[in-house]
Amino acid sequence: MKTFASTTLACLAAMLAANHTHAASLLNDTWTDGSRNEQNLPNESAWYASTASSLTASAGSMLGQPGSPTGSRVWLTYFTDAGSPTTLGIGNSISATWVFTPTTVSTATGRGVRLGLFNFGETGAARQTADTFSTSGIGQNVTGYIVNMNFAQSAINTPIQILQRDPALAAANLMGTTGSGAYNQIGSNGGGVAGDGFVSGTQYTFQFLIARTGVDEVELTASFTDGNTFNRSLTVTDTSGANFSFDAFALRPDGAQNSAESFTFHQFQVAVVPEPSSVMLLLGGLGLAGVIHRLRRKA
Ligand SMILES: [Ca+2]
Ligand SMILES: [Ca+2]
């Protein structure tokens, strides 16, 4: 027969396990309403496109079309209210997850797709409120990190690169250049050797995970998988001048000849782990267990 103590311990272990995996969803959108215009967190968010016609929603998905064969586009959304970026405490992480299907994937050897987590809540930064803007603008004073990806049928060596917005924040160019003054690389390129790339018509999941691992340190992991054998992943650590606050996600495909003819968005999610309220529940649970323990000792 189980003792009361062992039952209590089992309950606590279950609570710890639940807490460990419990995420607060900031946004989880599947375009069920067939529109990309409403900001109604956490169920949907408004998306802004540098060229309005390049991003169209229909029931259950959103279609992004880079210029073809050339012409980059920027697609941007906010997953918190204006002026209220989510800030990671030590041990917390944020993940942005994009489920998508590309068509007519490029044969490019460059890095034609950029995906970033940003903070438009910085002093001097301004949120976008409408479509139609320059793909080399909107970034003044915005902080954050990007994944710079070789998006092709055959991957180059180390197809993934992760960079941080330059702390000098001189550049208004959000994602149009990764050069000096705009971005600084974090760690080395990675994601494996040349070989398997993206297949047209296959569904992929991209995840950008940023975990705060210290007072001034974040660990950043970018991964692309088809849920089967394709898995390209890179983890790097930013050990100084790290960013912990985020309110936006943006994608910048270069023209179709360097990315893909189209990207169908099936789902876009942003979550924070752990959920602050679950920490409070856990602490409450531990306190209750302590009271029970003391009561039993007295009995
Ligand atoms: Ca919508
Ligand atoms: Ca840094």
- DSSP strand (E) fraction? 35-45%
- Which sheet architecture does the biggest sheet show? 8 strands, antiparallel
- What is the class of the largest domain in the CATH system? Mainly Beta
Gyration radius over CA? 21 Å
Q: What is the count of DSSP helices, taking H or I runs of 4+ residues? A: 2
**Fraction of residues in helices?**
10-25%
CATH fold-level assignment of the largest domain: Jelly Rolls
Uncertain runs are: 11-19
What shape does the CA trace take? Answer: globular
Provide the list of bound ligands, each named once: calcium ion
Summarize the structure.
With 299 residues, the chain is mainly beta. The chain contains two helices and 19 strands.
Give an account of the 3D structure.
By secondary structure, the protein is mainly β. The protein has two domains: 1-22 and 282-299, no CATH class; 24-273, Jelly Rolls, CATH 2.60.120.200. It is built from two helices and 19 strands. The strands form four sheets. Strands 1, 3, 4, 7, 14, 15, 16 and 19 form an eight-stranded antiparallel sheet that branches. Strands 2-5-18-8-9-11-12 form a seven-stranded antiparallel sheet, with no helix packed on it. It is globular and about 40 Å long. The two termini are 20 Å apart. Mean pLDDT is 89; it is low at 11-19. The structure holds calcium ion (2 copies). Residues 31, 33, 35-36, 38, 44 line the site of one calcium ion. Residues 164, 238, 240-242 line the site of one calcium ion (CA).
